[in-house]
Design a protein that fits this description.
Helices cover 36% and strands 14% of the residues. It has 234 residues and is α/β, with parallel strands linked by helices. The protein has a six-stranded mixed β-sheet with strand order 3-2-1-4-5-6.
Length: 234
């Protein structure tokens, strides 16, 4: 017996449909090969822009302030007559001030009994008495030798011309300014920095070769409840 080879011819309409489907599959494949790299580039670009913005924000200091060279007249802060006094201003809802408190703890550990420390937390007029007592207050209060005080309406901050959370001033026993500025190297980051080094040298040696006017990295000090945190929270 002989095998009979049968050829089935599809109608022209079916053949055209198959050709179109094959062309559609090829086109989609080409588009996918083009779109994926483009989407990847856009995604990487957005990440790069975000990282650049974050880095720029972290290294941008707070508002510059007028220097108060002598202990302000009328201040209710107790200044020591036996050793230098370090005054530090903070906003209780500024997350980057956590790094300032960590640096303050290092100053106390490395220069024990060499300085009196007064840390003032801002509280706006009309807010409850517990508003300023956040975890930052508790952390500062836990450092040995640190006196934590509430600065209602920023009265003392205004006397000392403090405008940024984390602003620190070191005065000698005569009320003469020895140092003013921040004690972190960037916003919200701990580590070796000019401000802390200058204070430690002044306390231990009575002099320093560091800059005695360090930049302050923190949120606006005299802001209301929600002015801090959304931009610098880690």
């Amino acid at each position: 017996m002989y095998a009979v080879k049968t050829t089935v011819s599809l109608p022209d309409s079916n053949q055209a449909s198959l050709v179109r489907k094959k062309a559609d599959v090829q086109n989609r494949s080409k588009i996918s090969r083009l779109v994926l790299p483009a989407v990847t580039l856009v995604w990487l670009g957005m990440i790069g822009i975000g990282m650049a913005w974050m880095w720029q924000y972290e290294v941008t200091p707070g508002e510059a302030t007028t220097t108060v060279m002598s202990w302000p007249t009328g201040s209710q802060i107790e200044r020591s007559l036996e050793r230098p006094t370090l005054v530090l201003f903070a906003h209780p809802r500024c997350p980057c001030t956590r790094a300032t408190i960590r640096e303050l703890a290092l100053i106390v550990a490395r220069c024990p009994d060499l300085v009196d420390i007064q840390m003032l937390f801002f509280r706006p007029t009309g807010f409850s008495a517990e508003w300023e007592k956040t975890d930052l207050w508790s952390s500062a209060e836990a450092i040995p030798g640190v006196t934590v005080v509430c600065d209602v309406d920023g009265t003392e901050a205004k006397r000392f011309k403090a405008t940024t959370s984390g602003y620190s001033l070191l005065y000698n026993t005569d009320g003469r300014l020895l140092f003013h500025g921040g004690i972190t190297g960037s916003r919200g980051h701990s580590g070796d920095n000019v401000g802390r080094s200058a204070i430690e040298s002044l306390l231990r040696d009575g002099e320093t070769n560091q800059n005695q006017n360090a930049l302050v990295f923190g949120c606006p000090l005299l802001g209301q409840e929600d002015v801090c945190g959304t931009e610098c929270r880690k």
